[in-house]
Protein 1
Amino acid sequence: MLVVGGGTAGTMATLTAAGQGARVLLMEKAHVRHSGSLAMGMDGVNNAVIPGKATPEEYVAEITVANDGIVNQRTVYQTATRGFDMIRRLERYGVKFEKDEHDEYAVRQVHRSGRYVLPMPEGRDVKKVLYRALRGRDMRPLVQIENRVMPVRVLTSGGRAVGAVGFDTRDGSLVTVRAGAVVLATGASGRLGLPASGYLYGTYENPANAGDGYSMAYHAGAELTGIECFQVNPLIKDYNGPACAYVANPFGGYTVNSEGNRFVDSDYWSGHMMAEVKRELDSARGPIYLKLSHLPDSTISKIESILHVTERPTRGTFHANRQHDYRTHDVEMHVSEIGLCSGHSSSGVWVDENAATTVPGLFAAGDLACVPHNYMVGAFVFGEIAGTSAAADVDGAGAPLPEDQVLEAHELIYRPLSQPDGPPQPQVEYKLRRFVNDYLQPPKTERYMETGLESFQRMKREIQFMGARTPHELMRTVEVSFIRDCAEMAARASLYRTESRWGLYHQRADFPERDDENWFCHVNLRKGDRGDMELLTRPVAPYVVDVPGFTRPDGVEPEPVERAESSDTAENVANAAVISW
Amino acid sequence: MALVTQRTDVPVTIDPELCIDNCTLCVDMCPLDSLAIDPASGKAYMYVDECWYCGPCAARCPVGAVTVNIPLLLR
């Protein structure tokens, strides 16, 4: 089987599938050692459901409310029930999680009610630990890693995924893969909006995550969902790191307006929190700040030792360049550019609780797969699920590769070489993403988005005529086509849902109210028979857990799932150990 | 189309005095593949201004030759 993307989810899919005896090819456009949204590392996990600290039911209810009810709870329930075993599995690989003096996991509260945030004291080593596991003696015979290879299309035969086409971004050679099953784990569409600085790569998400999987899944015929539920995050102004209330809150830091007053009632990132942030920024009380200057020196040193080391180590450099210090300067905050990412909101490839897409043989996991607010624990859990599902469903093995699709992909990759004087990627991409900002940034309106759509359609031609001279430039030009696909999806899905939902994520100025009567449903999109984008609705599946304080507008009764035995027992932990090793 | 030579302030700089000849650790780690070895000198350098200022290049360098600054537009 083929795994595309070697970040959190892809690595776990690979380890799991190979652990079950599958032969796995892992393709990564960067280098697995530091790839994915983690790149350098992560200070903690946001959504660990630890027995005794929180229950899966609480977590699923919390995410259901945070996502205004539009969730397939069976998917979220997987993250809730399997997250603890995953934490234990990661510990066996060597990842460290913070414990208190009673040797219990030191989870902290950032969400509205439950405690799910668990610091990782040596979070910078997460990818190192996983890479070591991938290169372990037990994995070597089964796992082949190809770094610096970028797939551009998933190949299908008779409607089933049977492989992929890509190219080596160093030497430019074409790569075709025949695979029994394909797992897409390519991360967010992070290079969609243009950061206010205008720097193409200064995005919140790792800019290598250009929406590759969104585009590949779409062209393979898979359904995508929740695309109109954009990702917008509160960040340090001009720097792409989170201002990080998650880290600062437990130490006494908090968000204030220019009058020094608090204005958000929960720091948990949701569309509603973002709407409050945007409202404050646009008011007479802007700008806004992360307030730390009131804290004692020792506390600030501790915060610096976390924030300036692991997740974004250049954060200290940023502040130092401006002679800013948390002791004297509160941190000015702003909102990020828009993106698509199910790790933070809920836009992604439609998957069921087994990580299966609507295309047989094609699975998705991580930020790319729609499991709302799934974050890192969810990426690991769905990586594991996708690995298991794909390893058990390799029927595509041996199918001949469809020549017409290979030729089309070849054209997509290499056309810019035949027209080296065509417009260069930096200019074309800048223009495309400026239109994304101009027309898609919330608050959204029909006229703005239609104008945006016209721009994206017009730019198809310009993208077709782009020129490139090196394999590296070919990588960037294909990525522009991914970005354009994502922009079109974002515009069409946002136009289709004629209501406001998820706070700022889908705030329609022309339909300012939530319309539960007509829009308590998923909005999905797929490639139609004539090759144009097709929009459809799907009902919200019956809930599996009750959501206190939330009444389903359609009155559909919950259908509880049979809850597996608590994973907390020694026997189950031992069994899990056998399976995952 | 015109080819224009334009000076650019790049965020990642590598001290050629410290950089080990033909070592590729920083080049291998860059998620955007923006670093390369100059064939003439054998030293690493940033050859495209594409940077997430994430830091693995500096963290992996065994001799501390790599400095990651913030791109000028954001600085």
Protein 2
Amino acid sequence: MRYLSIVLVLFALIATPTLAVEPDEMLSDPVLEARAREISKELRCVVCQNQDIDSSNAGVARDLRLLVRERLVAGDANDEVLAFIQARYGDYVLLKPPFKPSTYVLWFAPLFLIFLVFVLGWRVLAVSNRPRSSHALTREEEAYADQVIKNYQKGDRE
Amino acid sequence: MTRFLALVPLLLAVVIGGFFLWGLNPERDPNEIPSVLISQAAPDFSLEPIPGVAVPGFAREDLLNNDKPVVVNVFASWCVPCRAEHSVLTNLVEREGIRLFGINYKDKAEDAARWLAELGNPYERIGADTNGRTGIEWGISGVPETFIVGGDGTVLYRYVGPVVGDVAIAKFRAALTQAGVLGTGAS
């Protein structure tokens, strides 16, 4: 039983994300291949949309992996490869949305909400820390209250 | 200031609620990827004809200088929905006189030729995209996909998936009407 658990832990330790990259796609140059992997992580598979193209088995993902490598071999910089694919598939193909006017809401909304939470929290705390204003009764009010209480007690006895 | 802050939760609820309302709209397809091609010039490509098929190949030049918009359909013999879509496209060609060009995506020539011989060939031109590279130029995510390209080569519309079933056909016909291919009175 102990051995089994050790084996299971070892398996868990060596578990790595599965890659769909097939040996025949890989470049012989390890530097270029490493760059291709880096670029692939940035690119969304357009068929199975929450996977990067590195881990997707879809046909189009494979084509894009090949295209990335082809552009790299042709001498493109990483940015140029991404721009090449972005020109054909749009911003949606990038897993990290670009920073531009149409995505300002996306980028700034979390910051704005955090800011709002701080402002609101500060206001709430400031209000609750403030000493309560005392509402002492005036003499007339005191007399009136006494009267009311007396009347009530009287009515209660009857 | 305090008055205004008191309104903030309500304001947030309205904004977030509005977002939910938009998100829950059954008409919205969250998987839809907007095409960058719309209103852009058709991409650059040049495809050879399929050997054994009697229609010519297909390049970007064939999309420029047309007197009316053409429909560009990406299909393959191995694609089952394409088979269903084929009769819809054939109908549009035969009854409405639309011009239909085809991109034969990642197909074997003999398979494509057999498929067209069996089902009929409504395509005016077919380009063989054997390595799928032209598909990438068009930004497709799979087959079938159908584009409407204006007479000057501007991409007007993209339909992802088979144009099959009443809803899809109505949508596609509406796009054709808007492109000026179909008359408004046609049913």
